[in-house]
Amino acid sequence: MERVALPLWRCRSCGKVHAHAAEVCAVCLSDDLEAFGAEGGGVLLTWTTIRRAPAKFIGQAPYQIGVIRLPQFEVLITGRLSGGEPRYLAPVVLTRIEQSAPVFEVGAID
Amino acid sequence: MRDVLVTGIGSTAFGRHAGTPIEVLAVRAAAAALKDGGIASSEIGALYLGNFVSGLLNGKEVLAGIVADRLGLPNIPCTKVEGACASGGIAFRHAWLAVALGLCDSALVVGAETMTHASTAQATTALNCALDDEVDGKSGITFPGLFGLAWRAYAEKYGLSRSEVSAVVQKNKGSGVMNPLAQMGAVVSAEEIESSTLIADPLRLFDCCPMSDGAAAVVLTAQAHAANRSVRVLSSVQTRGPAAIGGHKDLTSFEATVLAAARAYEQAGITAAEVDVVELHDCFSIAEIIDSEDLGLVPRGQGARWALEGRTALAGDIAINPSGGLLAKGHPVGATGVGQIYELVLQLRGGHSNQVPNARIGMAHNLGGTGVACTVTLLEGVQ
Q1: How far is B127 from chain A (nearest CA, A)?
Q2: What pLDDT is stored for residue A109 in this prediction?
Q3: DSSP E strand boundaries for A51-107
Q4: What is the pLDDT of residue B297?
Q5: pLDDT tens digit string along B10-53?
Q6: What is the CA B273 to chain-centroid distance, rounded?
Q7: Do the beta carbons of residue A19 and residue A75 sit within 8 Å?
Q8: Which residues on A lie below 8 Å from B150 (Cβ)?
Q9: B38: Cβ contacts below 8 Å, ≥ 6 apart
Q10: CA distance B382 to B357
């Protein structure tokens, strides 16, 4: 399975990791944030299947979206799901970034 | 702070108003509220108008000024406020602040929205403006999708059966039958609900509020200047919560609601047990279960069971959404929070079509976006 690193942002002043790009750190207001690629997978907390999509995604429906926890960074990410049947606490890995949205593959049952 | 009373109420029906411009609906509701309260346009010192997407769906902005002009209001401050689905509640709160702080003696609150002329894709796109597009929107998530995520998170944490969620739909659709303003009152079977089209799994069509047009209005007046003293504002609170889906700990609770309710009880000097009737933000069936717990009305993890056992019905422990709620009354987004106040005032005056016997304390809860904006209002009927 192909893996890519997930882009996250770390405040160089207080160390807080943020799930998305920001002008300033929402903890300490420092503007010294660095982007880095987070390695390793996450776990699936919850998921849904979108059957009525907004106009710009309408040709893609139905598609699955999940909330993924990255345990090592204490952040939650909203992303697309692909691969196996979603289940609670399933391991997921980031396989690509599509139109700036992360796509996570749900691992097979061990 | 001065004591503030709700002295006039007005509303259009919620539903389809094909071809009727949004400002016409707003003026109808506002004029009805002024007449109900016996208040002249010249007595109004401020107007706050709640609206979400009139710019996008109608190409119309400055609605507050347009509506004031058509009502012949004085040259007073007229302000449109936006907080997604909480726009109406926020308009109410700002009008309350203006009167309570003594900036004016009477203020008019209007909420208005027209949506039914838009296609599902257009309306979904417009509603998605209430998401942080850079963070969550790029995934293709929708609001039904957010509550599909919440449903599964709640089910994992507390256990949840389809029939428990269907009980919420049946209760609210059933209450809507008696409400003359409701868009979609109906007696529906569990089978109809559970075989309706999937929208965002596990949410089906009957779990979702409809697209609606409508307007509602109330007049707030300082106690010393009020002729009609039947309903008093005990507290009016506004909070914010996480703007990103991932900002919530687990989607089984909305922090903004929990905080707003706690502050509202504290400011009013009452407890949840004293509330007799509640209009809360059931944009989706699962939302009512979560909201009822967040507001402290039902113990954590028991919202679904209480719904199934009828404990949140008109004759239950706590009457939740006797208007039919958003699910049955409809959800003209900017009007919803003001419409909730309208319903509660009828209850506290003792004249609602689904009257809660001896209702004295009413609670309104309006939640916007991904739980990013919330208002909670407590009202007291003074007999």
Answers
A1: 9
A2: 61
A3: 63-70, 75-83, 91-98, 101-106
A4: 98
A5: 999 999 999 999 999 999 999 999 999 999 999 999 999 999 99
A6: 21
A7: yes
A8: 46
A9: B8, B227, B228
A10: 15
- What confidence score (pLDDT) does residue A99 get? 87
> Cβ atoms within 10 A of the Cβ of A87, count?
11
* A21 neighbourhood in chain B, CB within 8 Å: 134
Return d(Cα B143, Cα A53) in angstroms, integer.
10
pTM as predicted: 0.97
Q: For residue B231, which phi and psi values (nearest 5 degrees)?
A: -135, 125
Asked if A21 and B150 come within 8 Å (Cβ–Cβ), the reply is no
Q: Which of B281, B331, B352, B365 is catalytic?
A: B331
As for the ipTM of the complex, it is 0.96
| CB-CB neighbours of B2 under 10 Å | 12
pLDDT computed for residue B198 by the predictor:
98
Which residue of A20, A65, A75 is in closest CB contact with B141? A65
Residues of B with CB under 8 A from a CB of A: 120-122, 124-125, 128, 134-136, 138-142, 144-145, 148-153, 156, 197-203, 244-248, 250-251
- For chain A, which residues lie within 8 Å of any Cβ of chain B, measuring from their own Cβ? 19-21, 45-58, 60, 63, 65-67, 75-80, 88, 99-102
- Pick the closest to residue B290 from B137, B124, B164, B201 (CA basis): B164
In this complex, do A53 and B141 lie within 8 Å of one another by their Cβ atoms?
Answer: no
pLDDT, tens only, B251-297: 999 999 999 999 999 999 999 999 999 999 999 999 999 999 999 99
User: B72-82: per-residue pLDDT in tens?
Assistant: 999 999 999 99
Catalytic residue among B85, B104, B208, B374: B85
Q: How far apart are the first and last CA of chain A?
A: 15
Please say if B331 is a catalytic residue: yes
Q: How far is CA B81 from CA B47, B60, B87, B326, B368, in A?
A: 10, 14, 6, 20, 13
B135/A50 touch (CB, cutoff 8 Å), yes or no: no
Q: Is B129 a catalytic residue?
A: no
- Rounded (10°) CA dihedral B115, B116, B121, B126: 0
Higher-confidence residue: B328 or B229? B328
Distance CA B312, CA B291 (A): 12
Q: Distance between CA B189 and CA B185 in Å, rounded?
A: 13
> Are A53 and B121 inside 8 Å of each other by CB?
yes
